[in-house]
Amino acid sequence: MNILLLLIPLSLLLIGVAIAVFVWAVRRGQFDDLDTPALDILREDEHDRPLRQEAPPPADPRDAD
């Protein structure tokens, strides 16, 4: 029964910390846009494509003879 004297205040403290962290995340904008990050993986961006085609290796001048 004495353990309740420790567990009840401890649980209230943890609930208070969890609420404070949630409020902090909401104020920082963590929950403003929940859809776009999930769709970003599906979008092909310009920087994902190679900038140029691989050039063939230069011909050896000794092979021209």
Rg, please? Answer: 30 Å
N/C terminus separation: 99 Å
- How confident overall, as mean pLDDT? 83
**Largest β sheet strand count, sense and barrel closure:** none
Low-confidence stretches: none
Number of distinct beta strands: 0
Beta content comes to under 5%
Summed up, the helix count is 2
Q: SS-based structural class?
A: mainly alpha
Helix content: 40-55%
Tell me what you see in this structure:
It is a single chain. By secondary structure, the chain is mainly α. It has helices at residues 4-27, 36-40. The radius of gyration is 30 Å and the shape is elongated. The termini are far apart. Residues 45-65 are annotated as: Disordered. InterPro entries: Cyt_oxidase_maturation_cbb3. This is Cbb3-type cytochrome oxidase assembly protein CcoS.
Please outline what is shown here.
With 65 residues, this protein is an all-alpha fold. The protein contains two helices and no strands.
From the structure above, extract its key features.
45% helix
How are the SSEs ordered, and which strands pair?
Blueprint: H1 4-27, H2 36-40
